[in-house]
């Protein structure tokens, strides 16, 4: 191995070791997680790599994740991209943007089979955000792009 190639490999190893992973998830697994009887407030954002408003609001969720890192708040970013694009598009997108929040990819062939189970009023449009606090029996939804102020206010209300 030539020295320049060896050096570039050594410099890449730490970056690859800490690289964000994206887990594929079925609706039932997500629903089970969100139904846990805990005092954790879940902030779940449904987005896609091809959705401009979704991408625009991602930094707000990342900021929320950082601001509430020591609180019982869990940010989940659920990609609605096609499961076949997980390795080709979603993982590189997440890594390029350095997302720190937990990222999942919804692996369901028919969104219409589970959308109304999550929220009867959800048309399927994204971005879509669900804020759940089971201890307080609170559930708030937004079928629109959220500003940082709207997101923070909604989470404060749920705590």
UniProtKB/TrEMBL annotation:
Domain Thioredoxin residue range list: 1-159
Keywords from the named record: Signal
SUPFAM superfamilies in the record: Thioredoxin-like (SSF52833)
Keyword hit for Signal: yes
CDD domains noted in UniProt: TlpA_like_family
Pfam family, one: AhpC-TSA
The keyword Signal appears for this protein: yes
GO molecular function: antioxidant activity; oxidoreductase activity
InterPro entries, alphabetized: AhpC/TSA, Thioredoxin-like_sf, Thioredoxin_domain, Thioredoxin_ResA/DsbE_sf
Range of residues in the leader sequence: 1-19
Protein name: TlpA family protein disulfide reductase
Organism, as annotated: Hymenobacter aerilatus
């Amino acid at each position: 191995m030539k020295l320049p190639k060896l050096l570039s490999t050594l410099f890449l190893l730490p970056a690859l070791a800490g690289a964000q992973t994206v887990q594929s998830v079925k609706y039932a697994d997500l629903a089970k997680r969100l139904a846990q009887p805990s005092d954790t407030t879940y902030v779940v954002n449904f987005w896609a790599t091809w959705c401009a408003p979704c991408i625009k609001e991602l930094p707000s969720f990342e900021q929320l994740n950082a601001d509430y890192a020591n609180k019982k708040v869990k940010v989940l970013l659920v990609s609605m991209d096609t499961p076949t694009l997980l390795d080709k598009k979603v993982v590189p997108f997440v890594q390029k943007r350095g997302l720190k929040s937990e990222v999942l990819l919804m692996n369901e062939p028919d969104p219409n089979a589970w959308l109304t189970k999550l929220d009867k009023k959800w048309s399927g449009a994204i971005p879509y955000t669900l804020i759940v606090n089971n201890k307080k029996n609170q559930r708030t939804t937004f079928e629109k792009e959220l500003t940082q102020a709207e997101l923070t206010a909604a989470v404060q209300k749920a705590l």
